[in-house]
Amino acid sequence: MTGSSDPSGVILRPTSRLIVVDQDDRVLLMLTKSPDTSGASRWITPGGGVDPGESHEQAAVRELREETGQVIADPGPVLFTEDFEVPWDAADHTHGHAEFYLVRLPHFEIVDDEWTDDEKVDILASRWWTLAELEATDEHIEPAQLVERLRGLLA
C-alpha cells in the first residue's frame, strides 16, 4: 500500500506490526529484502500497511492471518509506536508510522497461502529467535529497539 502524501512531499505509510512470542519466549521474525537497490536484507516482525478505512488493530489482525496463517480476534493494546524516515531508495513512501502489538501464541509453522506476489519474492525466510540469539546476532533486526523491548517483556 502506498501511503498518503502532503504538500511537502512526505509520503507516510501507516503500518501495524506484531511481536509474536511463543510458549518458549521465542519471537517470530521474517527475513526480508529491503526496498533498496543495495539488496540488503533485514529480520522484521510480521505486519504491514494499514489499508484505507482500516484501523491499526484491524490491520494487525489481517496481517497476522495473511503472513502467518494465525487467526486472532484482537491484537490487544498498542505496545509501542515508532515514527521513522525511510532510508531505502526504492521504497514507495518517505516516512513510516508503526504501531506494535504483542501477541502470545503457541508455537506454529508459518502458512503462506495468503502471501501477496511481492511477499513471495521479498520474504526470504522465517525463524523463531530466543532473546539470547537476538542479543548475540550481528544480523540487521527491525525495529532497532526490539531486543530492549523483549528484555522487559520477557523478564
Descriptive notes:
- Helix content is 22%, strand content 35%.
- The protein is of the alpha+beta class and 155 residues long.
- Strand 1 (4-5) and strand 2 (11-21) form a beta hairpin.
- It is globular and about 45 Å long.
- The chain starts with a strand and ends with a helix.
- The model has no long low-confidence stretch (mean pLDDT 87).
Keywords:
155 residues; alpha+beta; five-stranded mixed sheet; four-stranded mixed sheet; 4 helices; NUDIX_hydrolase-like_dom_sf; NUDIX hydrolase; hydrolase activity
Mean pLDDT: 87
Uncertain regions spanning at least 5 consecutive residues:
none
Number of strands: 9
What series of H and E elements makes up the topology? Answer: EEEEEHEEHEHEH
Q: Quick one: biggest sheet?
A: 5 strands, mixed
Rg estimate, integer Å: 15 Å
Structural class category: alpha+beta
Residue share in helices? 10-25%
**Total number of helical segments?**
4
Task: Give the overall shape, derived from the CA principal axes.
Answer: globular
Distance between the termini: 36 Å
% residues in beta strands = 25-35%
Give the topology, please:
Blueprint: E1 4-5, E2 11-21, E3 27-33, E4 41-44, E5 47-49, H1 56-68, E6 78-85, E7 95-104, H2 117-122, E8 123-129, H3 131-136, E9 141-142, H4 146-154
Parallel strand pairs: 2-7, 4-9
Antiparallel strand pairs: 1-2, 2-5, 3-4, 3-8, 6-7
Structure at a glance:
This protein is an alpha+beta fold.
